[in-house]
Batch of 2 targets.
Target 1
Amino acid sequence: MMYVEKQIVLKRTSQENTMQTLKKFIKYYKPYKAVFFIDLLCATIISAIDLAFPQLLRTLTKTLFAGVPGKIISALIPITIGLLVAYIIQTACRYYVTYAGHMMGARMERDMRKELFDQYEKLSFSYYDQNNSGQMMSKLVSDLFDISELAHHGPENLFISLIKIIGSFIFLFMINRMLAVLVLMLVFSYGQNKKMQETFMDNRRKIGDINSSLQDTLAGIRVVQSFANERIEQEKFNRSNENFLISKDANYRCMGSFMSGNAFFQGMMYLVTLVFGGFLIAHGRMEASDLAMYALYIGIFISPIQILVELTEMMQKGLSGFRRFLEVV
């Protein structure tokens, strides 16, 4: 019982620490809030256009395309112009998201690097005696790159994915309520995602052990060679290297389960759509246009799930780098 309570307290503390880190991270968006909100607006437009096409196709199939040929041909020009304008707008939005969004992240990276460098110049000699210069350079360069990627892709990918998942789910539910497979897929993805988070964190700890072992050995290489302790150091390094491989094995097993499981549920969704949709059409309870739209929305529903998985890994890398940044500043 005490163990369970301790785990709950540790989990709550971890969540609180993550929230505090996010609050400190968000303040760096302040000088670029106009760019940030325009970026989210463009992301909304991109998602809305993707969601609108299957609905437009369904409406045209039921109304215009069921009419006389002359009416269809005369309506094709305004439909073409309308869709062309929509996709030009979507292209402009994608350009803004790709260029301005990345530049926002790069400017935030520049601001943090300047702040970190200024802090390095204020630190005492004892700090430099106790800390490795390679680690300090890593915090100044590679860690901040991970942070800039998170700053741009994090909110944007999360926003687009949520709009597409919620929007497609609503449209699928409006067409027909055969959503059991979708719900199962969401439950499966959530469970596997939690496992993947644990294995990613374990990977980072294990690679940290390798770096620590390597740094100790190389820093004291004269002492190691003087006392002929090369074999002892090799055993220490091999042990940490092997532990990292074991952690990677668990990570890739989890990733394999996630990818193959999602692919299976994706196939099941199309299978259920085809079989159950054909059954409903045969009994006059569903139209062929609805079935076509259902299949299109399944594709829109599935793609953001993979984006969210990649976002989870990006968040872990970015936030762990930001925590290392906060340790100094």
Target 2
Amino acid sequence: SDPAALELLAASAEAHGGDDRFAQVAAINVSYDGEWLNNVWKLQPMLVDRGFRKSSEERVEYGSGWPVVTQAHTGPDGGKKEVRWPAGKPQDDTLDGGASVIYDGQRIEDPAERVRQEEASAMVAEAYRMFLTGPFYFTQRQGLGQKTDGMTAVMRKPTTVLDAECDQVLVELRPGFGTSEVDRVEVAIDRETKYVRRVRFSLDGFRKTKGATADVEFSNFVERDGLIFPTDFLEIVVHPINREVHEWYVTELSVEFQSAAE
């Protein structure tokens, strides 16, 4: 890694409330609502899962190992999709250590479709943790046990995001999002506020999006118990197409902290 890149990530974490404060987090509860744009569901129907993914209630739990994400998605017709990543133990006909996915109380019967859904859901759950927690996703990554093989970071050329001049860090993650062995993220950090304003990332955790690249832009930052979070998000697929595909926003957000005894 480039020391300057690691220092910039650390400075961003400090601006978002500090690594020491975030290390005390036991769980984050968040609810989202949003809209899919420009017919993206026709290009990636399984990943978008439009019938079940509009609003959601999610919880990220932090402990001694890899954070656990649970999601309850609700679709426009009232259908519910429940996801847990990591699943905790392999399920029949699933990827080893993949996500648990349940639709309206039932598991998918077809083994091949089940694996694809778990692969896509794992990638989404892990990426959404990155979107919400920003620099902490990278600075807190070390010490998560054997699942983490490594992270490297190097400086990239500056850019402008939402009229803010930003410095950029390119991070390589092993493992990547979900079941991916490796993913890369270009993190744009506001020079003035040191907030993360955009991540540009690979989507190699789902076989149908391998080679694709997407941006998520962050805005409307809020403070919760000494920590700073974005609440408005816009996703743009930049390769192989250039198209806004998803906008969503936080409707509720709360943070739970470890007790002093712990």
